[in-house]
Known about the structure:
The chain has a domain at 29-93: Cytochrome Bc1 Complex, Chain D, domain 2, CATH 1.10.760. The model has no long low-confidence stretch (mean pLDDT 77). The chain is 68% helix and 0% strand. It is mainly α and 93 residues long.
Amino acid sequence: MMAKAVLAFFGLFLLYAGCSALKVSTREMTPGEKLFRANCRACHTLPRAGSRSRAEWQTLLDKHKERMQLQEEQATAIIDYLQKTEQDTTGTD
């Protein structure tokens, strides 16, 4: 009986320690980021936003936006998010 209690305590301790080690971002997602994550994750693992140029992202989005049933302003919000992220990671304007 004591062994079960010790094992249960140890298991709860590990669970607590693992959960407290998770980093939770307090940053608010932009509408473009939310759309990017919601629409692209359904079929793909998410690529790093700054990994392509604006033109490359635009080409990919043009190819997929009909299937994702995005409005033009939603597609623009995604591209703006991806472009801003690219600028943030490369330091370009």
